[in-house]
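Hi R.,

Here's the chain you asked about this morning:
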Amino acid sequence: MNRRPMIVTSIAIVTAMFLISAWAWLQLPADAQVPIHWGPDGQPDGWADKTVGLLLLPFLASGVAALLAIIPRIEPRRTNIERSGKAYGAIWIGVMALLGGLHVLAVSVAMGAAVDITRLLFVGMGVLFIVIGNYLPKVRSNYMAGIRTPWTLTSEVAWTKTHRLGGWLFVIEGIVFLVLGLAGTTGTLLITAVIGGLLVLVGVTFAYSYFVWKADPERRTQ
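And here is the predicted structure, written out as tokens:
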């Protein structure tokens, strides 16, 4: 897997985030408060001073990019990660793009722009989940990325079938997020849909991986 395009893209995104923060730092007064958390109604309910508010996401994105760059080097099943290069790269860039977009939105709100960040965030999350769902079946068995249960890690059949099902579930969840975002859904309905959807996704894939593993005569038990 050639990690260079992902590393270069990540550096570009993180650099842009820091430049945006530097520009905002010069524009905002010394006592300005930057939103760092939003409630289900789409309104900011957590704030920080300029230092934390403008640097939190750029540093978080830097850490995520560094972790994603290191994982292929330390993964015990490195060959499988290498064979999952396209999927790994697409998910990597998708995560970085979402963090970069969220930073732009947060800075825009701090600058006084009327931005419905919850709506845009869920649209972005929906797109990311759909991307993950499309590439998830292409991820080969490994310890660092994918749907890792005790049973997918000890059965190639369980890994393959669980990731096929998981791919569909991620796409469905992504479509739900996309619809919720475009519809401007807020409040209890939003929370219920998100938590319920994620619980279904986790619960179904977890249980399914066990039953597939149980039926695999070549499963490993040690």
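One quick note: The chain has a mean pLDDT of 89.

Cheers,
M.
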